[in-house]
Design goal:
The complex is a heterodimer of chains A (about 500) and B (about 1050). Chain A is mostly helical. Chain A folds into 3 domains: about 250 residues, Serine Threonine Protein Phosphatase 5, Tetratricopeptide repeat, CATH 1.25.40.390; about 100 residues, no CATH class; about 80 residues, Four Helix Bundle (Hemerythrin (Met), subunit A) (Up-down Bundle), CATH 1.20.120.840. Chain A has 18 helices and 8 strands. In chain A, strands 1-5 form a two-stranded antiparallel ribbon. In chain A, helix 1 runs antiparallel to helix 4 and helix 7 runs antiparallel to helix 8. The N and C termini of chain A lie far apart (about 70 Å). With about 1050 residues, chain B is mostly beta strands. Chain B is about 5% helix and about 50% strand. Chain B is built from 10 helices and 57 strands. Chain B has a 22-stranded antiparallel beta barrel. A 5-stranded mixed sheet of chain B has the order 10-15-16-13-14. Chain B has a 4-stranded antiparallel sheet with strand order 3-2-5-6, with no helix packed on it. In chain B, helix 5 runs antiparallel to helix 6 and helix 8 packs antiparallel against helix 9. Chain B is globular. The relative contact order of chain B is 0.12. Classes of the chains: A mainly alpha (about 500), B mainly beta (about 1050). The interface between A and B is large, with 96 and 88 residues.
C-alpha cells in the first residue's frame, strides 16, 4: 500500500521504454557525431578542409593541437559510449530474452560500426568489458587487434540473429534503412558484410594474412549471392537529414549555417585542379564569387595569419580570397562571406538541399572501392573485376555530386584517373585510395583520415604551423579527460595522456 | 511590613545614541522579583526598600546597567546598544525561544539596524563581515542577483550546501531554478551560453521588515529542523509591532544610492585593433599596430566599404583608455519603506509597504522589489494567543546576458579593441553600427543592440504566510500549532531579436516556475521547576515539510514576425517540464535541564521519514546533546574585571536526504548536441526517440549524515565592555550522496551513490569592545569577527579519487581525496625538477605538463570582518571592513583578454620574441634531462598569450581581498527639535557600500568575490560577470 511518502516517481521521465524508441536514439547519436565533430576533425586531418581567414574554431586542430579536453562528454564518453553504444546495448539486452532477433541483430551491427569508427580514431578502447553499467564501472582497454577480431564476431552474430527471421521489424524506428520487410533486413546484412570487408582491409598493412583469410572466407560464405552479398547501389549506410531546425545535416549545422571557419584545403584542391575533376566546382566555391573564369584559391594546412594576398580585385587591390566549400554543402549565409554572392548568377546557394544531405557512413561507392582493393590485392575471387568495381565506385561518387554520365566518362580517361594507365598493383591501389579520399570530401572525414593513415595515400602536406613540432603528424585522437580521470585502466594502454602522435595498431606508416 | 519601609524611586531611561526615552526597559531590584518597566517616554517608578539596593536596567538590544540606589530618589540612566548580547532571549530552531546563556552552541543574532544601516537591499549580503562562520559570494555585480551563503563549510559534494531560510517558523524556498538538466537551460546564472544572473529566492525578503536574523550554525543548533538543516539555518523574525507597549508608531525609511562600476580589468593602451601587428578592425582583438596616431582606415565604415576598393587611411589610431568604463552608466537605487505598528495589552499589529528599485549601471537593465506585509497577533480568552503574518512580494527586473555567449555584452565590450569607442556606437540603427554595418557584423552584435533587444525579464509574485495558535492550559504547559505557506510564481521571458549572432532567426523563451512550500508544526512545550534548583524545559512535536516545484519552459526558435514575442510566433518550439515534490515528516523532542542559573544540559532527538529515499532507508534518527556552564555564576567569580564566563560543548548529528528521483534509472527524450548550437532533437523525422539516461540509479541509497562536535568559550570583562566568544568545531559528513562520475565507456556517465566523506574543522571568533563610554554619551564600539574553516575531503568513491563539482574550460572544480572541497584541477606549465619552465625548442613556446594536477582550491584561509561605531549624542559613524584571505578563483575573463590582447600584461616584452626567463630546454643529448635555455626565443605576441591561456594555472588567481564594505554617518535630530514637528525621531544618514577594494598585486583586474556560476556549488569561476559597484547615497528615517 502506498503511503503519503510514496511520491518519489519522476513525473517527467519514464523508467521504461520500448526498444523501438531507443534504437533510433542510438542511430541519431552515430549520425550526429560521426557526421559532425568526428567528421570535422577528420576533414581537417585528412586535409580536405583548412582554416579560413579569421576562423578560429578549429585552428588548433589544423595546427595539430588536440588537447584531452576535446571530444569528451559529447563525443567519446557521453556520445559514442553512453549515447549510441549503450542505447544499442539496451536493445540487445531487452530484445534478446524477448526473441526480438531482428532488432537485436541490427543493434549488434550498429554497435560494430560505432566501435569501428571509434577504435580507428583512438586505437585501444574499452570493448569486451564496456557497457556493463554497475557490473563494471571501469572497463579495461582492449588491444585494437582484439577489438577488430571482436567486431568481426559481433557482425557475424548480428547477421546470424537477422537470419533467424524472428521478432518485429523496426520499421520507421530504424532511421538508417527503415526496415519493414525481410528484403529490407537484407540491406542490414549487406551493410554488415561490407563493414566486415572495411575492417579486414584496414588490417592490410599490419596483418595482411588475417586480412586475406578473413576476406576470402567472407567471399566464400557469400559465393553464390548477388554481388557476394555486399552493398548494392541504393544500399548506402546513411542517415537522412531534414530541413527543419534541429534535424539538419550535422556537418551543415556546425559549419555551414553561418559564414564559416573552414575553407578548402590546398591538398585536395590542388588534386582536383590537376585531375580536372568535375567535382571541383561542387566541392569548392569560386574564390571571389563574382567573376568568370572561376578561380579557386585554397588554404594551406596549418595556415596562419597573415594569409596571402592571393587575389587581385577589379580595382587592382591585393586581397585575401579563399575557396569555401561548395554549394553542395553550404547555406545561403555562407555565400556572403565574400560579400558578393548576389551579383554572380552561378552562385545560388539555398539552404534546403545542404541541410537535408544525408549523413554518409558507409556508401555504395566506398563498398565498390573496397572490393576493388580486395581484387587488386588478389584476395577476392576471380569473379571480382577490379577495374569494373573501381570505375563503378568513381562513377557513383561523381553521380552523387551531380556530375553527368558524359563528364564521368571523360574523367575516367584522365591519366591520373584511368585504370588502364595504372599498370602496376601499386598504381592501381593508389588510384583506388585517392579516389576514395576524393569521394569522402565533406561527408566522411573520419574514414578519410583513417584511410590516409592506413594507406599513406595521398601524402599529407606539412602544415605551415605545427604545434607538435616539425615533421610530426597527428596519428590518433587523445583519450579524453573523463577517461583519464575516471578510468584507471586507461593507463594500461601505455600511452601518456594527451598522446596524439603514436600510431594506432594498424597504422604502420 | 515591607511597604512601611519602602520608598519610591523614579527616573528616566534614555537611549545613549539618540537621547530618546526608552520604553519597555525592565527595571529590577537586584536579587528580588520586584520590578517595573518604563513607559512610552522611558519613565519608571518603583518601590524599593528604604535602604540600599541596586537597580538593574535591562532591555533587549542594550547592555544592562546596574546602578546602586543609595539615597537617590531619582535615577536616570542611559543604555547603550550592544550588538554582541542583543537579546537575552534568542529564537532557536522551530521558533523555540531560549535564554541565550542557556545554549550549548553558538548562535549569532543581528538586529534590523545592523542589516539596514547601509541600505543593502539583499538580506544575505548584509550578513557579510558581521557573522563569524559564514561565507558569502555573489554571482555578479548586477542588482537582484544570486547570492550564496555557506556556514561552516560544505557538507555535501554536489547537494545543496546552503542553509535553510526560516521566516517566522516557515521554511521558505531558496530555490535558484537552475540546473535544468533535461532541457536546453536558458536564463540561468550557471548557463554560460545564455546566462543571466537570477536570484535565489531568499532575495525576496525585504530587510526593512526584518526584526532580527539568527544564524544557527552547526548541526547542534539546527538539528530540530531535521534533514534540511544540515547546512545550518537562517532564522528570520519579521517585525510584528510587539514591544511597543501600548504605543503606535509610523516609520518612514527612504534611501537613494548611486552605483558606479568599481573594478574593471586593467587594459593595455599601446596596441590597437588587428592581428599580427596589422590593423584590422573586423576582429575583436587588439593585436594590431602600435596606437601611435598613425592613420588607418575608419573602423566605423570599414564593413560598409566596397570590399574591392582600397581602404583609405583616414583616422588616427589612438587609444580609448576609458572605452569600457564609459559604457556603464551611473545606477540609481531607491529604497523606500513605510510601516505602521502598534500594540496594546492584548494585540499587536504591523503593516508595511517596502519598495526597492534599481536602475542598473548596465544600460537598460533594472531590478524592482515591492513587498506588502501584514503581521498581527492577539490574545483570546486569556490563555489562547493567535498570530498571523502575511507578506506579498513582487520582484523582478530586466536583466542582461552574461557568460560566454555572443549575446553577452561583456565579452564584446571587454574585448573591444583598445582604439575603438563604445559609446559612439550607441545608436545601433545608425548604418555604421547596425546589424550589417557594425564593425564586427556577422561575428558579434553591437552591445547596445543586445542590451536594448535581448533581455530576460523575470516577474515574481510571492506570498508568504504563517498562522499560529498557542494555548496555555496550565502554567507549565503550552500547546502550539503553526502552519506556514510559501507560494510563488516566477515568470521569465527572454527575448532574442532577429539578427542576434547564433540566433539569427530570433528566439523567445518562456520559463514559468511555480513553487510551494508548506511547513506544519505542532509543539508541546513543558516547563517544570522542581527540587528548587532544577528547571526542565521540554518541547515535543512534529514537523512536516512539503516542497513542490513545477517548471515549464517553452523555447521558441525562429520568429516569424520580427520583434513579436510569443511562442505562437516561433517556428520551432521545444517544451520542457520539470516537476519535483518531496515530503519530510519528523517527530522530535528537545529537553533542556537547568541547574540553578549556570548549568544547562540540552538533549534533542529527531526521527525523519523522507519521500526521497527508498522505503528501507527512508526513516532515520539523529540525536544531539549540549551543555552550557556559566562558571562565573557557579563559582561567583564576577568582579570588576571579569563580568561573565561560560563554556559550552555539544555533539550532534543530522541527516540529509537526497533530492527527489535518484532511485530509479530513467529514459529521457533523446537529444544530441555538440555544444556549438548544433543538435538533433527527437522526435526526429517524425520518429520518437528515447535514450537510456546517463545516470545509473541506486535503489540502495541512504541519507547523508553529518556529525559535529563543538566547544566554545564566552567571556566578558570590565563590566561587559570587552568580550569574546570563541568556538571550535569539527564536523564529519559521511555517506555523501553524489552522482559519482563513472567512465562513459561503462555506458553511463554517473551513478548516484553514497560515496564520500568530508571533514570541516574551524575556529570562529567574535570580539567586541567598548574602549570609550563616557558620561557625555561619547561611545566607541568595536566588533571583530574571524572565521577559519579547514575542509578536507577524506574519501570520495571507490571508482575515482575525485568528484567533479563543476568546472569551466580546462579547469575542473573537484572534491578530491586529501584536498579541500572545491579544488581546481587542470593543466600547468611543464617544469623541470628545479621548477624552471620547459621550452619546446622547436616552437619556442612553454610546454604544458601533460599530467593534470591540483592547482589550488576555492577555500579561503580565513575570513574576517571588523566594524566600529563611534557615537556622540545624535551622531553615529559606522564603518565595516571585511576580508577574505587565501583561496583561488578561475577567471575566464582574464583568459579571454589574454587571447584578445586587451589586457595590460599582453604588452610584455613589447610583444617581441623574448628569452623566457629562467627556462630550460630538453637536453639535446636525449638523456631526458634539461639544460638552461639560452637561445630559444618565445614569440611574445598572440601565440604566446594563447599558449599561456591554455594552462589553467595561468588563469587561476589569488581570491584574497579586503573590502571597505560599508560606511554610514547618521545624525539623529534631538528629541526637542523632533517633537516640534510632531515626530518622535528624525535620522539622516550618508551611506556608502563597497567603497574600496584591495586585492593582491598579482590580481589587479577583478573583484574576486564574484562567482559567475550562480549560487550553486560550482564556485570560484568568473566568466564575464557584470562588475561589482561602489555605492554612495543618503537615507532619511522618520518615526512618529
Amino acid at each position: 500500500e502506498k503511503d503519503f511518502l510514496d511520491i518519489n516517481k519522476d513525473p517527467n521521465n519514464s523508467t521504461t521504454a520500448d526498444i523501438n524508441l531507443v534504437l533510433p536514439s542510438g542511430q541519431a547519436f552515430v549520425s550526429f557525431i560521426v557526421g559532425g565533430q568526428y567528421n570535422v576533425v577528420g576533414e581537417i586531418l585528412a586535409q580536405h578542409l583548412g582554416i579560413a581567414q579569421g576562423g578560429n574554431q578549429y585552428r588548433a586542430w589544423d595546427q595539430f593541437s588536440i588537447p584531452t579536453s576535446t571530444f569528451d562528454g559529447r563525443e567519446f564518453s557521453g556520445g559514442i559510449y553512453a549515447g549510441a553504444l549503450d542505447d544499442f546495448q539496451y536493445v540487445i539486452n531487452a530484445g534478446t530474452p524477448a526473441g526480438e532477433w531482428r532488432m537485436v541483430g541490427i543493434a549488434k551491427i550498429l554497435q560494430a560500426h560505432a566501435y569501428q569508427v571509434t577504435t580507428d580514431l583512438y586505437g585501444d578502447i574499452p570493448f569486451s568489458e564496456a557497457l556493463q553499467g554497475s557490473a563494471n564501472l571501469t572497463p579495461k582497454y582492449d588491444r585494437q587487434q582484439d577489438i577488430y577480431a571482436g567486431l568481426q564476431q559481433l557482425l557475424d552474430e548480428g547477421i546470424a540473429d537477422i537470419a533467424k527471421q524472428q521478432g518485429r521489424f523496426p520499421g520507421t524506428a530504424d532511421l538508417n534503412y527503415r526496415a519493414t520487410t525481410e528484403a529490407d533486413m537484407q540491406k542490414w546484412v549487406r551493410f554488415a558484410n561490407t563493414l566486415k570487408l572495411r575492417l579486414y582491409l584496414h588490417m592490410s598493412e599490419v596483418d595482411p594474412t588475417t586480412a586475406r583469410n578473413g576476406i576470402q572466407a567472407l567471399y566464400n560464405r557469400n559465393a553464390s549471392a548477388t554481388d557476394f552479398n555486399f552493398m548494392r547501389s541504393g544500399d548506402s549506410f546513411q542517415f537522412a537529414n531534414g530541413t527543419a531546425t534541429n534535424t539538419e545535416n550535422p556537418f551543415y549545422q556546425t559549419n555551414f549555417r553561418l559564414q564559416n571557419n573552414l575553407a578548402v584545403s590546398s591538398n585536395i584542391g590542388d588534386t582536383l585542379v590537376r585531375y580536372q575533376d568535375p567535382r571541383l566546382p561542387v566541392y569548392a566555391l569560386d574564390a571571389d564569387l563574382t567573376t568568370t573564369p572561376q578561380e579557386f584559391l585554397f588554404v594551406r594546412p596549418g595556415q596562419n595569419a597573415p594569409y596571402p594576398n592571393n587575389f587581385t580585385t577589379s580595382t587592382g587591390v591585393q586581397t585575401v580570397r579563399l575557396s569555401y566549400p561548395g554549394t553542395y554543402f553550404i547555406g545561403q549565409a555562407f555565400t556572403n562571406v565574400n560579400r558578393a554572392g548576389s551579383t554572380y548568377a552561378g552562385i545560388t546557394a539555398t539552404d534546403a538541399p545542404a541541410k537535408s544531405r544525408p549523413t554518409l557512413l558507409l556508401t555504395y561507392e566506398e563498398s565498390q572501392l573496397l572490393r576493388a582493393e580486395a581484387a587488386v590485392r588478389g584476395w577476392a575471387p576471380s569473379g571480382e573485376n577490379a577495374q569494373t568495381l573501381y570505375e563503378n565506385g568513381v562513377r557513383a561518387s561523381l553521380t552523387r555530386f551531380g556530375v553527368s554520365a558524359a563528364d564521368a566518362a571523360t574523367y575516367l580517361t584522365r591519366p591520373q584517373v584511368s585504370w588502364a594507365a595504372a599498370t602496376t598493383p601499386a598504381a592501381q591501389l593508389r588510384n583506388i585510395f585517392v579516389q576514395k579520399w576524393l569521394s569522402f570530401f565533406g561527408t566522411n572525414g573520419a574514414e578519410a583520415w583513417t584511410e590516409v593513415r592506413r594507406t599513406n595515400q595521398p601524402r599529407l602536406q606539412a602544415p605551415l604551423v605545427n604545434l607538435l613540432g616539425g615533421g610530426r603528424f597527428v596519428k590518433r585522437l587523445p583519450y579524453p579527460d573523463s577517461e583519464l580521470q575516471r578510468n584507471p585502466n586507461v593507463a594500461a594502454t601505455g600511452l601518456t595522456p594527451g598522446d596524439i602522435t603514436t600510431p594506432v595498431w594498424w597504422d604502420v606508416n | 511590613q515591607a511597604a512601611a519601609q519602602s520608598r519610591a524611586v523614579t527616573g528616566k531611561v534614555t537611549d545613549r545614541q539618540t537621547g530618546q526615552g526608552l520604553p519597555g526597559v525592565t527595571v529590577l531590584l537586584k536579587g528580588t522579583t520586584n520590578g517595573a518597566s518604563t513607559n512610552a517616554d522611558g519613565i519608571f517608578s518603583l518601590s524599593v526598600p528604604a535602604e540600599g539596593g541596586t537597580l538593574v536596567f535591562s532591555s533587549i538590544g542594550y547592555s544592562s546597567v546596574e546602578q546602586a540606589i543609595g539615597n537617590q530618589a531619582t535615577i536616570d540612566v542611559t543604555l547603550a546598544t550592544d550588538t554582541r548580547q542583543l537579546s537575552e532571549v534568542v529564537v532557536t530552531a522551530l521558533g523555540i525561544e531560549r535564554e541565550r546563556k542557556s545554549l550549548g552552541y553558538a548562535v549569532e543574532t543581528l538586529e534590523n539596524k545592523d542589516i539596514t544601516r547601509a541600505s543593502e537591499q539583499n538580506l544575505v549580503r548584509s550578513l557579510q563581515g558581521r557573522v563569524a562562520g559564514v561565507q558569502i559570494s555573489s554571482a555578479s555585480g548586477a542588482a537582484g542577483g544570486a547570492t550564496r551563503i555557506v556556514i561552516r563549510g560544505a557538507q555535501s559534494f554536489t547537494g545543496d550546501n546552503q542553509p535553510i531560510y526560516v521566516v517566522d517558523g516557515n521554511v521558505i524556498s531558496n530555490n535558484a531554478a537552475t540546473n535544468l538538466s533535461t532541457a536546453t537551460p536558458r536564463g540561468n546564472g550557471d548557463d554560460l551560453n545564455n546566462g543571466v544572473d537570477l536570484p535565489n529566492r531568499a532575495a525576496d525578503i525585504d530587510p526593512n521588515n526584518v526584526e532580527s536574523i539568527t544564524v544557527l550554525k552547526g548541526p547542534a543548533a539546527a538539528a530540530l529542523y531535521g534533514a534540511r538543516a544540515a547546512s545550518g539555518a537562517i532564522i528570520i523574525t519579521t517585525k510584528k509591532g510587539a514591544g511597543l507597549k501600548g504605543r503606535s508608531q509610523i516609520t518612514v525609511n527612504s534611501a537613494v544610492t548611486l552605483d558606479r562600476v568599481n573594478r574593471l580589468p586593467k587594459f593595455q593602451n599601446t596596441y590597437g585593433s588587428g592581428t599580427d601587428g596589422v590593423y584590422d578592425p573586423q576582429n575583436n582583438v587588439s593585436w594590431g599596430p602600435r596606437m601611435d596616431g598613425r592613420l588607418v582606415p575608419d573602423w566605423r565604415t570599414y564593413t560598409l566599404a566596397d570590399p574591392n576598393a582600397t581602404q583609405v587611411d583616414s583616422i588616427p589610431l589612438t587609444p580609448k583608455p576609458d572605452n569600457v568604463r564609459d559604457f556603464f552608466q551611473t545606477g540609481v537605487t531607491t529604497n523606500n519603506s513605510i510601516s505602521f505598528a502598534g500594540s496594546n495589552q492584548a494585540s499587536n499589529f504591523y503593516v508595511s509597504l517596502a519598495d526597492v528599485r534599481t536602475k542598473s549601471f548596465i544600460p537598460n537593465t533594472n531590478y524592482k522589489r515591492t513587498s506588502v506585509s501584514l503581521n498581527g497577533g492577539t490574545q483570546l480568552f486569556s490563555k489562547v494567543t493567535t498570530n498571523a503574518t502575511l507578506t506579498y512580494v513582487k520582484s523582478g527586473g530586466d536583466r542582461g546576458v552574461q557568460g560566454q555567449s555572443r549575446s553577452n555584452i561583456l565579452q564584446t565590450i571587454l574585448n573591444t579593441p583598445r582604439d575603438i569607442s563604445l559609446t559612439e556606437q550607441k545608436n545601433y540603427n545608425d548604418p555604421r553600427y547596425d546589424l550589417n554595418g557594425y564593425y564586427l557584423a556577422g561575428f558579434r552584435n553591437n552591445p547596445y543592440f543586445l542590451l536594448d533587444r535581448n533581455l530576460l525579464t523575470d516577474d515574481v509574485d510571492r506570498l508568504l504566510g504563517t498562522a499560529s495558535v498557542s494555548y496555555d492550559p496550565l502554567e507549565w504547559l503550552n500547546l502550539t500549532f503553526r502552519q506556514g505557506v510559501d507560494v510563488y510564481t516566477d515568470r521569465r521571458r527572454q527575448t532574442i531579436s532577429q539578427g542576434t549572432i547564433n540566433n539569427l532567426a530570433g528566439r523567445y523563451l518562456e520559463d514559468n516556475n511555480f513553487g510551494r512550500n508548506l511547513t506544519t508544526d505542532a509543539l508541546i512545550n513543558v516547563t517544570r521547576r522542581f527540587a528548587e534548583d532544577f528547571t526542565i524545559k521540554g518541547v515535543f512535536g512534529t514537523n512536516y515539510q512539503e516542497q513542490l516545484t513545477s517548471r515549464a519552459v517553452a523555447d521558441g526558435v525562429g520568429l516569424v514576425i520580427p520583434d513579436f514575442y510569443d511562442v505562437s510566433n516561433a517556428s520551432v518550439v521545444t517544451n520542457t517540464k520539470v516537476d519535483t515534490k518531496q515530503r519530510i515528516l519528523g517527530v522530535f523532542a528537545d529537553l533542556q535541564l537547568a541547574y540553578r542559573d549556570y548549568l544547562y544540559l540540552g538533549l534533542t532527538g529527531r526521527n525523519d521519514w523522507t519521500s526521497t529515499l527508498p522505503k528501507a532507508t527512508r526513516s532515520f534518527f539523529y540525536p544531539s546533546a549540549n551543555v552550557g556552564f556559566i562558571f562565573t555564576e557557579a563559582f561567583k567569580l564576577e568582579n570588576n574585571l571579569l563580568s561573565f564566563g561560560k563554556v559550552r560543548a555539544n555533539i550532534a548529528s543530522v541527516g540529509k536526504p537526497p533530492i527527489p528521483y535518484q532511485i530509479d534509472p530513467v529514459f529521457v527524450r533523446s537529444t544530441v548536441d555538440n555544444g556549438f548550437q548544433a543538435q538533433y532533437v527527437f522526435p526526429l523525422q517524425s520518429v520518437a526517440g528515447f535514450r537510456v539516461g546517463n545516470v545509473l540509479g541506486n535503489p540502495g541509497l541512504k541519507s547523508e549524515l553529518t556529525t559535529a562536535y563543538e566547544g566554545g568559550l564566552e567571556m566578558r570583562f570590565l563590566q561587559n565592555r570587552l568580550g569574546f566568544d570563541a568556538t571550535y568545531y569539527r564536523s564529519i559528513s559521511k555517506d555523501i550522496i553524489v552522482n559519482v562520475p563513472v567512465p562513459g565507456t561503462s555506458g553511463f556517465t554517473a551513478q548516484t551513490a553514497n560515496a564520500g566523506t568530508m571533514e570541516n574543522r574551524g575556529i570562529e571568533l567574535a570580539l567586541n569592545a567598548t574602549p570609550v563610554r563616557l558620561e557625555n554619551s561619547l561611545t566607541w564600539d568595536l566588533n571583530f569577527t574571524f572565521t577559519h574553516n579547514r575542509n578536507r575531503v577524506t574519501e570520495v568513491t571507490n571508482v575515482t579519487p575525485n568528484i567533479g563539482v563543476g568546472g569551466l574550460g580546462s579547469v575542473a572544480l573537484e572534491a578530491r581525496v586529501g584536498q579541500p572541497y572545491g579544488s581546481f584541477f587542470g593543466t600547468q606549465m611543464l617544469r623541470d625538477g628545479e621548477g624552471r619552465v620547459v621550452i619546446d625548442p622547436v616552437s619556442g613556446f612553454p610546454r604544458l605538463d601533460p599530467v593534470l594536477t591540483t592547482l589550488g582550491n576555492i577555500q579561503p584561509k580565513y575570513l574576517a570582518g571588523a566594524s566600529t561605531t563611534v557615537s556622540f549624542k545624535g551622531l553615529a559613524l559606522n564603518v565595516l571592513f571585511d576580508t577574505k584571505q587565501g583561496g583561488k578563483f578561475f577567471s575566464n575573463t582574464i583568459n579571454q583578454l589574454y587571447f584578445a590582447g586587451a589586457l595590460r600584461e599582453t604588452t610584455a616584452n613589447d610583444r617581441q620574441p623574448f628569452l623566457y626567463p629562467n627556462s630550460v630546454i630538453p637536453n639535446p643529448d636525449g638523456s631526458g634531462t634539461f639544460v638552461p635555455n639560452t637561445t630559444v626565443l618565445t614569440d611574445g605576441g598572440f601565440n604566446y598569450w594563447r599558449q599561456v591561456s591554455t594552462a589553467g594555472e595561468n588563469t587561476l588567481f589569488d581570491a584574497s581581498y579586503v573590502k571597505f564594505r560599508e560606511a554610514s554617518l547618521s545624525y539623529s535630530l534631538p528629541t526637542e527639535l523632533v517633537s516640534k514637528v510632531k515626530l518622535t525621531g528624525i535620522q539622516v544618514s550618508l551611506i556608502g557600500r563597497n567603497l574600496a577594494l584591495w586585492t593582491p598585486k598579482s590580481q589587479p583586474h577583478l573583484d574576486p568575490e564574484v562567482s559567475s556560476l550562480g549560487s550553486g556549488n560550482n564556485q570560484g569561476f568568473e566568466f564575464y560577470a557584470y562588475p561589482t559597484t561602489r555605492s554612495l547615497g543618503a537615507s532619511l528615517r522618520l518615526t512618529l
